[in-house]
Design a protein that fits this description.
alpha+beta, 2 domains, nine-stranded mixed beta sheet, six-stranded antiparallel beta sheet, 8 helices
Length: 288
Amino acid sequence: MPTFYLNGDYVPREQALIPVEDRGFIFGDGIYEGVRAVEGRLYEWDLHAERMVRGLAGLRIKFGVAEVEELRGVCERLVRENGLEDAEAFLYLQVTRGAAPRTHYFPPASTTPTVFVSATRFVVPRAMRDNGCSAITHEDMRWSRCDWKTVNLLGSVLARESAQEVGAYEAILHRDGVVTEGAATNVLAVIDGVLRTHPLTPRILPGVTRIVVMSLVEELGIPCREIAFTLDELSRASEVFLCGSTTDVTPVVSIDGATVGSGAPGPVTTQLRTAFEARLYALASATR
């Protein structure tokens, strides 16, 4: 039976109970992170922790650097207690403003945040990585601070459901004809020989995998510009790929039923995927 962490205790699933007045449940008033672990080692923890601290500060939830850093040990313990030391795992961390009578304004400052962490086995979808996935385009209906990783994900949920209904993996979001990101990923495209992606603004999440990929782009000397592209430019891209903590680097081979490029993973995507996986799995080999 899985062990979860909730408010200082390590408990089995059926005991991980949150009050119905928790503001995460009532308002989506909280921040979350998803962290990958490979053979017991957390991948890019510092980047995840930094983003979590930034989001909590943005929402003015009193849970700072020291408190977030303590969650590293919680994650490592959950990996062990759930028997995931020799596997790949996904850690889900969530901090909400806590439980209090429902008011749109903040509850008393003495309200204790609710802290939850889980660890589950992660199975890499190799076939999709190798062969590519399909996507649709979808209006970006989310709020204006997408750079904070809040638990209020209804816009992304509706977009992903639209993709699911037609057998696609991801929904590529756009505002006024300009591509922002995926419902649960960042999106990059090779257009006229140059890799393009939306710049870091409140319109997109500063993805941890995106940070790693952009560093690899620089190391490999791949021409790249952080300039947003339109749906029209997306339609003529020679390569498109997604990146995220559980998506790694995943090629997109069709969008809205139209073939992307040759219909197979392109050379830039393949090069970056190889480099990314080398860095990801070096984490485990370095500890052997």
